[in-house]
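hey so i finally got around to running the thing on that chain from the lab meeting. sorry it took forever, my laptop kept dying and i had to restart like 3 times. anyway pasting the input first so we r on the same page abt which one it is
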Amino acid sequence: MKVKLYWHIFRNFEEIELGCWAEKQIKLPIAPIIGMYIYDKSGQRFVVNKISYDLSSKIVSCTVDVLSEDPHFFTIDYESKKNMAIEDGWKVRETSGEVSKIWKFIYGYKDME
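ok and heres what got predicted. didnt touch it at all, straight out
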């Protein structure tokens, strides 16, 4: 089963300022479920937190969060995380400030602007 993983990399995590989307396509032997752990080839661990299905292309899209054993991973600056994603084979798309505002509004962070 083809699965597209989407990872949000935040420019400023305290203010929920989205910096870029990272996208990676993988194959899984089973359909993903929310809460499922997925490991990529580099050994990075992700947890699925949202799933959508595109029946026409037979691709499942999952939004994932990174789970890291290294406590310093979450204090790494934005550019370093983005470069790590690129090195691990993720396609990275930068977002503009406008997209960040929409992101905050959709997910209930509108009072933080």
